[in-house]
Structure formats: structure tokens, C-alpha cells
Amino acid sequence: MAVTLRPARVRVRQASRREVLAGYLFIAPWVVGFLIFTVISMSWSLGLSFTHFDLASNSATAAGLDNYKLIFGDPKVLTSLFNTFVYAIMAVPLELAFAMVLALLLNGMVRGSGVFRTIFYLPKMTPHVATASVFLLLLNGNVGAINQFLGLFGINGPQWLTDPHWVKPSIVMMTLWGAAGSMVILLAALQNVPRELYEAAQVDGANRWQQFWRLTLPMISPAVFFLVIVNTIAALQVFDQAYLLFFRDANGSAPDAALFYGVYLFQQAFQQFNFGLAAAMAWLLFVIILIITLIQMKIGNKLVFYGGGRDD
Description:
This protein is flat. By secondary structure, the protein is mainly alpha-helical. The two termini are 51 Å apart. The longest helix is centred in the N-terminal third of the chain and has 47 residues, at 2-48. It contains 14 helices and 4 strands. A hairpin with a 4-residue loop joins strand 1 and strand 2. The strands form 2 sheets. It has a two-stranded antiparallel ribbon with strand order 1-2. A two-stranded antiparallel sheet has the order 3-4.
């Protein structure tokens, strides 16, 4: 009996080793990419932030903490950080609410949901350059379609692209154009809520609002929590929308209200060629995002339901 079991154990052990080896081979491309494009790149960036890098001679001289001191002494850094935070506070909840409304509408449809799902997702597939071109026409303060529509109701629309008070709302509107990514995640979460729970809630006399607040929202809270984190990170790194709307001409006429942290970092790196300062700015943003994400996870873990119960 022992003689027959031993070869069987050996075969099982060899098969297990082959599976482990196959697993390592499958993840090897990701590991190599992660090492090259993340670990090595971030390490090089961290070293660069302590130097004065000269692109012409491809040489760097030690700068100590000079670049970090320049960050805190540059008023444009504070302005860009303020603009970025204000934008994030406006964009994240509005995008989540807009995506939630679309997801609820699609989830309640019996027929044609696939068609509308595709239509709603098309803006997400549109390149940012094309989207910015469309919004330049829509947001034109004199002949734009939005102000013309407001004029039908006797409302004088603002100068969306020149009035500092309306610059950030205009960029938020452009961000909402691509809310379909969040909508798809919320729709998948909604469709995973068991129908039996709604039937039980109806038997107990719960109305639509009570069902949403006490049943739907807790059941999809992991998806909502995930979107809050990734959308906050994306909002703090906003670049495309602001750059394409206000800085594409590089003539210096863009209002300070449109100067976001990502845009100013890009200007320092690829227009002023202050790579050391830009690297230091990137690491400051990394630390800010890390702190905000940790706070969100600390708070979110007390509110999110995992598997029907809170992960306290």
C-alpha cells in the first residue's frame, strides 16, 4: 500500500510545482513591468528630486532639500494645490451622484438597457482632445450652446472659460461627461443585490427611498467606497481637462483659477525644464494622496458593509 501511495504523492507534488511555476510565468510580465515602470521609475524620481538636473548636458548636481524648499516658497504651488482640492471636492461627489442616477435608471429598465448602456458609455470612449473641442464650443460665453439654452429661460449664462468663479465648474462639467466608468461599476453592484431583499422590504412597507437608503446603499457600499477612493486620486491628478481647455496655446493667458497641480508640474518639467523641482512636486503629491487615501480607508472601513456586515 505504501509502495502505491508514494508514486501518487510524488505525482501530486510534481503537478503542484508545475502549477506554481505556471503561475509565476503568468504574472512575470506584470512583475517586470511593475519593477521597470513603477519601482525603478519612482526610485529614480526620488533621487532626481534632490538634484538640479541639466537636460542639455544630461548631468545632475546635488541640491539637497533645495527643490522642496522651492515648493513651499512658490505661491503658484499653493494656488495650484488650492485649485486642485476645490476641484476634487466638487468633482468626486458630483460624479458619483451622476453615475448613481444613471445606474439606477438602467437597473430599473426591463427592455433596451443594453442600448442605453452603450449610449451612456460612448462619451467615456471619446478621446479627451475631442471632448475638449466639443466643450470649448459648448462653454463659449457668447455663442456657446449652454448659454444659448439658458437664454431661452431668460438666464444670462456666465463666461465659463474666462470668469475665475466658473472655471472649475466648467472643468467639473467636462469630467461628468466621462462618468460612465463609475456608472458601469455601480450598475454591476446594483444587479448583484438579491431581489428577495426588496420583496421582503416591500412586505415590511418600506417605500422606494427607504429601500434605497437602508438596503441598496449598504449593499453596494463596497463599490461606492472603491469609487470614492479612485475618483479622489484621479481628481487630485487632474491634468487633461484643464490643460486642453486653458493651456493648449501656451500663451500665458490662462486664468490662475485653471492652474491645477498637475498642470503646474507639467510646466515645470517640460516647459521650464526644472526636472528636479517637478520630481519634488510629484513626490509631494504622492504623499498628499497617500495621506488622504489612508484617512478615507480608516473612515470607510467603519461605514462599508462587507458580506452583509461592517468590517470594524
